[in-house]
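Late entry, written up from scratch paper. The run itself happened at the end of the previous shift, but nothing got recorded in the book at the time, so transcribing now.
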Amino acid sequence: MNTNIARRRLLAAATAGVAAGALPLPGLAQDYPSKPVTLVIPYQGGITEQLGRLYATELEKVLGKSVIVEVKPGAGGVIGGKYAARAPADGYTLVVTSGLTQETAQGRFDTFAELEAITAITSQAFLLYVKPDSPITTLKDYVEYAKRHPGKLSYGSVGPNTSAHIIGQTLEKSAGIKLVHVPYKGGGAQALAVMSGELASGYLTSAFIKPYVEGKTLRPIAIVSDQRSEIYPDVPTIVEAGYPDLAPVGSSWFGIFAPKGLPAPVKDALVKAAGTIHDAGPVAAFVRNSGGVLLTAGPAYATKKTQEDIDFWKTFYRTHGTK
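Output as recorded:
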């Protein structure tokens, strides 16, 4: 009898041990964060890096742990996106991006299969710019020059299939001109190329171009939007210049994403931190001062916006055939 009881107790203990091993150990998610967090930035030297580094600083304050920035540029953001997506879904790797919606629409990435949204941060319009002593002063001048010199007028972007590249291709189709696209690894390199005369023009977001405009080293000639910017009130919109079909592709939005499958307590902690950062402090001030729009915080809005963007770009590529 005693032997049977002992056997039953041993079996029960073994079963309990197996069950416990199949569950997350207490404290792994609940004690988050217990070590430094990495924030991946998939574009170098542009608004994404500016915003990402600032967000990392604020996230570090809120979480009470170090946030390490890793810049992984290339392939239109896909290299950084995949690098983050392949990390464990434990909250210790995040990525600042717009969900790579253009790449998802063209089958080079799958946002919803690989990432999940934590929060949206800001939307930023692009400006077409030239060097201050350029004879091109308006978009009309720009188009007329391109028509007189087909295949000679160059413009830069931060990589193939990025927003600036798409804007340039759309302008080519709308205006009936031929431009030369030159991709760079970051906005800083692109800006320097224009200042040196290596590149004729480029597209940068309102936030990134601001210090160059204030320092009179770059001059914007059009904002790719249907509304003028509060911080660049004298710069005409692309719609005013007669190219309304460029407006929908003329801005980028940015948010924080994580590898798919975060434990609920970890995601809750990150979403709560994002709300704190969103409501007050340097990130909100940066967005306002750069002429951007502060977007709704939280994963619901970011997820909805990601899906809307993917749908938009799929339709756009079908209609325009842009690649």
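The two ends are 77 Å apart (CA to CA).
(Scratch paper discarded after transcription.)
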